[in-house]
Structure formats: C-alpha cells, structure tokens
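Lab meeting minutes (informal)
Scribe: AK
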Amino acid sequence: MIKEPRPGRVKTRLGRDMGLTSAAWWFRHQSAALISRLRDPRWELTLAVAPDVAGITSRIWSADVPRVPQGGGNLGDRMARQMHIQPPGPVCIIGADIPDVRRTHIQAAFQSLGDHDATFGPATDGGYWLVGLKRMASPPPSLFRNVRWSTEHALSDSRASLPNHRIATVATLDDVDTLADLTRLRALSS
C-alpha cells in the first residue's frame, strides 16, 4: 500500500514536525528503497497505489513493478479490496513507511501462513506494518470491520475481525508517523 509522495498528501503528521515537502521527500526515498529491497523471485511485488489515476501513471516508482489502484474508503476497505482482487493464494500487504522491513520478514510472514489463516506484523504503536491471509477462500466479510485506525487499538481490532481464524504474529517493527519516530529509528541504526 503506497501513496504517491506529494507534499500534504503523505506523512502529514511527520510533515507537521519537519515540513510537508521534507516529509514527502523522505517518503519518496523510503518507498523507493523499500521496493528495491523487497524484490525477490519468491513472490510477486505489486504496488497498491493512491491516488488511483496519478499513482498508476506516476514515474516515481520503477515502471516494471505492477500497480493496482487502492480505490476509495478507509484503510480497511482498501486493504480488503486488495485481498479480494489478488490471485488465489497467500497475500501479504505492507505499508511503505517501515524502514527496517527486509525480505526475511516477508519470508517469515509467508511461512507463517503455512499453518495459520492470517498473520500480522505488529508495530510498536499498537498498529501493524503487515497483514497476510492464506486465502484458501474469499476473505471473510468481517475483515477489517470496526477497526479504530490510527490508534493503539488497530491491531487488536483487526485480529478481532477474524474470529475463529488461526493467527500468527511475525516481527514487531516501527513505522514512521512523526519526527520522534524517525529520530528514534535513526538513533537505533547509528
């Protein structure tokens, strides 16, 4: 899930702290590095882009990476749509603002779907950076219903939207929403 990095349209909380243009610049370079890092012959990498038309035609990302529009609605609506439109089989969705995600994290998520119906990669703020479904059948209609997005309840609410499903958890990683998040991650990596 990725947005075209336009000032004022991406990372607005980060932009309040460091300026909208700087936040968009950070996101542009972060997402490009992430896409490059996650290329792997074991899976198909597809960008679910927003805004739909501008994201599909954007020259910011490599033209050889397939793109699909996210469509409208809240984050849950858009992620559920992606779960429905992808070919049958396991699917993992991640955000593009997680600097520490590596191929080994994605591999672990797909492996966890071998004996689980769903998997989550928790974020330290109570949300999550990854959600995956085995998808032997259509995702359940309850998927992502009643989730309090952008709160510390997002992960627990999302797990609750999958009753009677075997759920795995993979590595906990940090996303970047604020300058404090970015500063903390930079300090940890130095």
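Next up, CB showed the second protein from the same session:
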Amino acid sequence: MTFTAFTQEQIGWTPWLEPLTTLNEEQEEALVDKARAASPYFRLLARDPAILHARTKTDNDIFYNADGGLPRAERELAATAVSRHNGCVFCASVHARFASHYSKRTADVQRLLDDGVSAPQEPLWRAVVDASVALTAESFSPSHVEALRAEGLDDLAILDTIQAAAFFNWANRLMLSLGEPS
C-alpha cells in the first residue's frame, strides 16, 4: 500500500530496485552505523559504498553536530519543510518526529504537515521554513538571510539552516526516485 498523507507516524519505504540482502565488509563500514543495515534504503545505497559513506558522514555532521549553530529542532524543521514541499512523505514523517521531539511543539509541526509550508508559524520557525523552501525552489535570496538574522541567528546557525535544507532537497529527490512510502 502506498502512503500519501503527511504524518508524524512511523511509516515504511519500499524500493523499486532490489536492495542488497547481504553486505560485504566495505559496504558495512560505509553505513557508519550498523543499525542502518536494517533499512532497505541504505542497503540499496550500499551498492556504492564510497558514496554511501560520504553521504552518511555529511548527514551526521549536519544533523548531529552539536558544536554551536542552529538547534537540532530547527535543523529537523528545515528538513521537514523541504520534504513537505518536495512531497517526500517518508522523509517528512521521519524529520517531523525529530522536530517534534526536540522542540516539544508537535502541534506546530503537524500544522506544517497538514497545511503545507505556508501554514502559520512563529517568527523564527517562519524564517527557517521560508529560507528552506526558497532554497529548494531556487528562489533563495539575501532577504532570507536577513530574516534569519533578524530572528537572532548567527552565521553558523544560518549555515546550518542552508545545509539542512540543501541536504534534504537532494535526499528527497534521491529517495523519491528510488522508491515510495508504504
């Protein structure tokens, strides 16, 4: 069954190509986190271990690096907004759960999922959502940086917003071209 509604519930993802059933040592190391071997998405990407390794290290640095910058909740919000804009139901569900968990603002996250990226949000979240979607829609401008800065974000936090949005713009397109939510 294909899942088309945006949700914070945990859903599955079904690849259109057969993922690897067993991984060699190089492919296992490329996962960075061995638990990812349970995911058909990562087993599919393991066909090219060098790229999977670089992709995973980049993802981890953007979302798990706590050395200053944008708080984790807003990084996850950026990923959720981009995923909602791009129609990636699976990624939106994953990152919406993280955004809710780290922010404790489940209703605000759900409003983004239900009503879309133009749904009302408080000013900081509005600036993060708008900048993330603009980057995805190729309409990002200095005004987005100014809006983020007006909400108190420094250069590192603005960079984190851009990196989270850019990474998920790419990740959504990859995931949407390889399978579907289920």
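CB comment: Strands lie at 13-15, 179-181.
No objections, moving on.
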